[in-house]
Amino acid sequence: MRLLVVGAGEMGRWLAESLAPAFDVAVTDVDQAVARDAAAVVDARVADDGETFDAVCFAVPMSAVDDAVAAHADRADRALLDVTGEMTTALDAMRDVAPDRERLSTHPLFAAANAPGNVAVVRDAVGPVTDAVVDALEVAGNEVFETTAAEHDRAMETVQAKAHAAVLAYALAAEDVREEFHTPLSGPLQQLVDQLLDNNPRVYAEIQAAFDGADGVADAARRIADADTETFVDLYEEASR
Fold first, then answer.
1. pTM for this one?
2. Of the N and C termini of the chain, which has fewer Cβ atoms inside 10 Å?
3. 3-state DSSP call for residue 117?
4. What are phi and psi of 67, to 5 degrees?
5. C-alpha closest to that of 82 among 112, 113, 54, 103
6. Rounded-to-integer distance, Cα 190 and Cα 170, Å
7. Could you read off the pLDDT of 155-178 as tens digits, one per residue?
């Protein structure tokens, strides 16, 4: 089966490489130089203009998914899927333009450099092509688990938007200290800061825009800052529940 990956960035390359053993993979991108670079490092080729495929996968920023689906969905004969990170919008867009196609939304919960790992999937309209995609992800060593778009997007508010906001807030508030001063809590937290700052800030900005997390972290920090001793103890008990 033939598959087109729209978007040749980090996640597009990860998907192309993961699915190449099971599919004839082609890539495209708004910057075709990026597509050529991706094709050179994964087992894929650059798609020809107007070429059609069994499946088209959208590996684009969340803010670009509507435009990408509108531009490329008609190149899929059988299935549409995405790896954008926000499932409700992507599935709505694919459903609107191609109600008769198989549809699958996927989200690897890791950076491509850390693959394999957990991959959330929503089987919106099942069939042999999307089943083959899921099988290929599992063969590549990933732990695939099923969810719903609503459950996934709600979880991303915590595990991505709130987590990133909390770590970035610590990074902005913390002072430089000698390594010897770090505690069993601050040391790992500093490692999270280093990991966060080593990635593309625009990706994190997209996550904050898609999933409301920073306000909740800010509200919690204000409650801590305003707490007297007894209230502080109460906040610990609230958190433990």
1. 0.90
2. C
3. coil
4. -65, -40
5. 103
6. 9
7. 999 999 999 999 999 999 999 999
